[in-house]
Amino acid sequence: MSKILIRGAKVLGGEPQDVLIDGDTIVEVGAGLPAEGAEVVEAEGKVLLPGLVDLHTHLREPGREDSETVLTGTRAAASGGYTAVFAMANTFPVADTAGVVEQVYRLGQQHGYCDVQPIGAVTVGLEGKKLAELGAMHESAAGVTVFSDDGKCVDDAVIMRRALEYVKAFGGVVAQHAQEPRLTEGAQMNEGVVSAELGLGGWPAVAEESIIARDVLLAEHVHSRVHICHLSTAGSVEIVRWAKSRGIDVTAEVTPHHLLLTDELVRSYNPVYKVNPPLRTERDVMALREALADGTIDIVATDHAPHPHEDKDCEWAAAAMGMVGLETALSVVQQTMVDSGLLDWAGVADRMSFKPARIGGATGHGRPVSAGEPANLTLVDPAYRGTVDPTGFASRSRNTPYEGRELPGRVTHTWLRGRATLVDGKLA
Amino acid sequence: MQRHLISAADLTRDDAVLILDTAEEMARVADRPIKKLPTLRGRTVVNLFFEDSTRTRISFEAAEKRLSADVINFTAKGSSVSKGESLKDTAQTLEAMGVDAVVIRHGASGAPYRLATSGWIDAAVINAGDGTHQHPTQALLDAFTMRRRLVGRDAGLGQDLAGKRITIVGDILHGRVARSNVDLLHTLGAEVTLVAPPTLLPVGVETWPCEVSYDLDSTLPKSDAVMMLRVQRERMNAAFFPTEREYSRRYGLDGDRMARMPEHAIVMHPGPMVRGMEITAEVADSDRCTAIEQVTNGVSIRMAVLYLLLGGNEPAVTHSRTEEK
Q1: Considering the domain A3-47+373-427, what is its CATH architecture?
Q2: Residues A30, A58: contact at Cβ < 8 Å?
Q3: Which of A233, A269, A270 to mutate to test binding with chain B, by most B CBs within 10 Å of its CB?
Q4: Which annotated residues bind L-aspartate (chain B) (predicted)?
């Protein structure tokens, strides 16, 4: 591999600097570095971030290759500036054995666009009854450390307690999809003023908050750490804030869409806005932004959930839940957090790279942009303004809620261990 | 008037009064020996029913036939829908056969809205009830019935329901009739009170343009019309209320309670009634109960809606009278 000189980039949004990559490693960071023998990438006005890390991606392979594959999903990830994604376990078959997680891991390695770190199911078949072979998945080539039944909640308190305890043996973490199942039977959207008018089954905030409250208390009791997936309500923020103040080892993520969109959009009955947990209210959105800024919420995770067109081109109740997010995440975060003044680019690096890598144990990712570190990097043009056009997505699916919406910023380059996966906005 | 009728909330006061007035004209047709107008001759209307609802379908069918439309009835049972065909494909297939209007009943809230706004078809869409969302022609026929009874058949023309006190009792949470009625009655100037056990009221009801009460007895003396909604017995299995008996004791309308209503006040029911549950036979069969009238009025209202959405700007009845001469 040859040398690359990234010239004049604002590293983590700071003063312009040059960054020299040799092979798979950053060898020098400073002003006026010599360009000899290096391919030069002019980066004036652009922001250089550590490669983004997504702790919550649905790659759909194996089983639903009509919506996404490891190849198309990792190409979408590279387009969005990601160098590592954690692939959720709700595939067909479920990633509840060493065999499935190894397959997904190897596909990621083989395609080379983005590291794929499989997440293992907590329970067999995501059924919430019996622990999956968590240790075997950890010891497999995939080296699983994050376990989640995402899509379903580990609602049985005893199973949850055991899972929290068991994974401590190998430094694992359980990522909970917090959704009390009985309170959300037939749920179609956030329960509140809008659901009352639209006549759609309500998904009450308390169904999320009660599980989070229980799980932070369980984590405290058994001295484990717990991660909360896609936190979506102001009340959940309060519970996590309280838990952290008590010293409970809890981390939490928020999706880009919960930072921007509200349940008012459901008035269109357009299922592109149907997602789980559902879009909440303006008050929740503001609380989530504030919590991400003050660190109560640790990270942004996309919950990239591809679905084929026919699963969204129908009536609301029949539609699948979920949105694609990898290719728009950074733009949404720029709009909601950076351009609003809540977070600087160093904060974005922290919430979208450093911390997710640390929570998931993704070694080699989420490292500082400095000499000797792996060259996993993302170059962003924050001045760019464009309208989201899903036909240009690398993802196999187009179910974005942002179609036609103007969003700021654009990822122009992504490097995975020194290899460019995205150049001038085009996949390499 | 708009191109579609999806929600009672989409109607302005003037739209609604126009529909009620047009329905009065249509009702006069029903009094004639030949109850038919040529207004929609050559137009095709499909009744697209994904949910069983014999009474609503028959009412629309009668209205369509009285306006001389060609009528196609489509029910999901035994059709390609039961084999997995999507709403979009079904609608496009029907439209390809040359349909001018689609009257749709669907179990999913918002399905008619999707049909009207997704660019799937060009035909006018009339919502005949969607999930727990809306049933605008029901609200219109209810308002029509109230105006006739509380204002007067001739005196009511051009009038709304300003100041009338309407109480709606029963399962508000799972009901589309209550939602549509609250929207339309509010638009028409009526004062609406919803009465139900708290379990059968949606979270968010506090923002609706109406009062909410858990106590039927205190509301009855202040009502010009009391509308009883059907309560499905299965609801008690999901702990919405303990038993059928307890429900009727607290929220059912019997003779004693009816006696507490003002003398002029009417009892309404959209049907089907569960006698012994929300309403006793004594009340259902009394002169004050307008359930049967509502059915009759439903045909007039649906004629008016079809005429206004499809029939163009010419007056409906005057025009046809000229033709008859």
Answers
A1: Roll (2.30)
A2: no
A3: A269
A4: 83, 176, 230
Q: pLDDT exceeding 90 applies to what percent of chain A?
A: 100
- Give the model's pLDDT for residue B81: 64
Q: Work out the minimum CA distance from A29 to partner chain B, whole angstroms.
A: 53
Lowest-confidence range among B90-104, B147-161, B175-189, B280-294?
B90-104
Among partner residues B9, B108, B130, which is closest to A318 by beta-carbon distance?
B108
For the cut 80, the answer to whether the pLDDT of residue B233 exceeds it is no
Measure the CA–CA gap between A99 and A118, rounded to whole angstroms: 11
Q: What is the mean pLDDT of the segment spanning B236-245?
A: 86
Interface of A with B (CB under 8 A): 188, 191-200, 202, 204, 268-270, 310, 313-318
- CA angle (A287 as vertex; A212, A339 as ends), nearest 5: 130
Which chain A residues are within 8 Å of B113, Cβ to Cβ?
269
pTM, two decimals, is 0.94
pLDDT of residue B76: 77
Domains of chain B: 8-134+295-324 (3.40.50.1370), 136-292 (3.40.50.1370)
Q: Quick one: average pLDDT of A317-346?
A: 98
Give the model confidence (pLDDT) of A250-298 as tens digits: 999 999 999 999 999 999 999 999 999 999 999 999 999 999 999 999 9
B56 in a known ligand binding site: yes
Structurally, at CATH architecture level, domain A51-360 sits in Alpha-Beta Barrel (3.20)
Where helices occur in A65-204 by DSSP H, the ranges are 70-79, 98-111, 134-139, 157-166, 193-198
**Residue B325 — pLDDT band, cuts 50, 70, 90?**
very low
Q: Which residues of B200-226 are buried (b: 16+ CB within 10 A; e: fewer)?
A: bbbebbeebebeebeebeebbeebbbb
User: Residue A390 in contact with residue A337, Cβ under 8 Å?
Assistant: no
| ipTM confidence | 0.89
Q: Which two tokens stand for residue B126?
A: 């009339």
Name residue, tokens 């589309």: B176
Share of chain B above pLDDT 90, in %: 78
Q: Is A303 a catalytic residue?
A: yes
Distance from C-alpha of B192 to C-alpha of B190, rounded to nearest angstrom? 6
At residue A400, what is the residue type? T
CATH 3.20.20.140 residue window(s) in chain A: 51-360
Q: Do A193 and B179 touch (CB under 8 A)?
A: no
